[in-house]
Design a protein that fits this description.
Blueprint (H helix, E strand, L loop, with lengths): L1 E2 L6 E2 L28 E2 L3 E9 L3 E8 L4 E8 L5 E2 L8 E2 L4 H19 L10 E7 L2 E6 L7 H8 L4 H20 L2 E3 L20 E8 L2 E9 L9 E3 L14
Antiparallel strand pairs: 1-2, 3-4, 4-5, 5-6, 6-10, 7-8, 9-10, 11-14, 12-13
């Protein structure tokens, strides 16, 4: 028997296509720096295909062999400072990048702890566990499937007024939940439509001010719209400083 890398059901090892979901059994990771599908982490999490990536890591669709549930596993992986040899599990970090790696890994794990505080919130995916392995770190969380705003716009062409108001309202609710815990979310937006009915799982439009250069006093407003892909970045702060962290509903 072998396990499908998409729906994770077991089927006859002689078959090349899953009889349950129709997906071909393909253990090609897609990119050499990704974990090979079929890898088991922490003796429990059966890794499927990568479903997204971002500044902080790679997101895999996975199967919890203990609870028999589909989850998302986010691997701490910053391509700028680390790599992985094809077919290997462990990551490689250069000596000159080790300090930054350790700092950002701590931030990554702090993200998991921050997200875990919102277990009863419908705006933020549940975090089930986090651990270190393969010389990096992992967060196991709820998998939310759907389509991104870009995908929705490509299909629909525009957002109607009623839907726009709905998005804005949900964004406001999400921001309020974060600010109550003195956490500022820096960027992302996601629209999840698992049943073709618009449903915001967690949405934030963030208007950020960035300096162009250190010697350039001018600032430009940058609208950051990022797909969910679990690329959450949180900043824990004792106070909310409007002049430095501009968040807006658009």
């Amino acid at each position: 028997m072998k396990r499908c890398l998409s729906c994770f059901k077991e089927f006859d090892s002689k078959l090349e296509m899953c009889p349950f979901c129709g997906e071909d059994y393909d253990s090609d990771p897609g990119l050499p720096t990704h974990l090979i599908p079929g890898t088991v982490l922490s003796g429990r999490y059966y890794i499927g295909k990568a479903v997204g990536s971002g500044g902080f890591g790679i997101i895999y669709k996975a199967f919890d062999l203990k609870l028999e549930a589909i989850v998302a596993v986010k691997e701490f992986f910053i391509g700028r400072i680390m790599t992985r040899a094809a077919g290997e599990d462990k990551v490689i970090v250069s000596k000159k990048s080790r300090q930054e790696f350790e700092y950002r890994k701590r931030r990554f794990l702090a993200e998991a702890r921050n997200m875990a505080k919102f277990g009863d919130s419908r705006f933020i995916p549940n975090v089930f566990e986090y651990f270190e392995a393969n010389d990096t770190a992992y967060i196991v969380m709820e998998l939310l499937e759907g389509e991104t705003l870009n995908m929705y716009m490509a299909e629909k062409g525009r957002i109607d007024m009623q839907f726009a108001v709905y998005i804005a309202t949900e964004v406001g609710n999400a921001l309020s939940a974060l600010h109550e815990h003195k956490i500022i979310h820096l960027s992302l937006i996601h629209i999840s439509e698992p049943t073709r009915q618009a449903e915001i799982s967690y949405a934030v439009f963030c208007l950020k001010k960035k300096k162009k250069k250190e010697n350039d006093n001018s600032k430009r407003a940058e609208t950051s719209i990022r797909t969910k892909n679990y690329n959450e970045r949180y900043k824990k702060t004792m106070s909310y400083i409007p002049s430095r962290n501009k968040q807006a509903i658009m």
